[in-house]
Amino acid sequence: MGLVEIDEIGHTIGLVRGSPHPFRLSVVNVAVVFLGGGVGTLLRAAFEDRFAPPLGQSWPWVTWLINVIGCMALGVITGVIATRPLPSYRHRVLYLCVTTGLLGGFTTYSTYVLEAVELGGGGLLLVALGYAASSIVVGIAGVAGGYLVGRRAVREVESS
Q1: DSSP per residue over 47-96, as a string?
Q2: pTM (2 decimals)?
Q3: At 148, is the secondary structure helix, strand, or coil?
Q4: How many CB atoms lie within 10 A of CB 25?
Q5: pLDDT of amino acid 10
Q6: Beta strands 12-15 and 4-6: pairing type?
Q7: What is the mean pLDDT of residues 85-113?
Q8: Helix 109-121 to helix 125-159 angle, to the nearest 10 degrees?
Q9: 8 pLDDT tier (thresholds 50, 70, 90)
């Protein structure tokens, strides 16, 4: 048995084992990812514009926090979905909008790498290495911790 589920017409519709991903390429799916991504990108730009220090001069706390918050949110949402699969196509589309779209637009790998390179190039090599390493470690911990929180939240709601 493969990991991909195919509908009766031959469209890929998601992964087995309760995956929430609606893989069918459709106008709706593209539109919700585009919409969510636009909102996420605007949120990140607003935070960066308001709070970020000049590039390469100090620890990029704003990008670091944005990525950590995004990792934790993705973990919580995925933990909920792993415990209680999405009941309808509308829920799967919302999931796609929020995770791939909003959180994908909000978090940023490219800015994280650029900031690390700028710190290192500006003579702050230890800061650059600490920023790069902590972003990965804390991001993984955020997803894992969020996942556990999401699963536990569903179980507590269902048991009460």
Answers
A1: HHHHHPPPTTTS--HHHHHHHHHHHHHHHHHHHHHHHS---SHHHHHHHH
A2: 0.79
A3: helix
A4: 9
A5: 41
A6: antiparallel
A7: 88
A8: 150
A9: very low
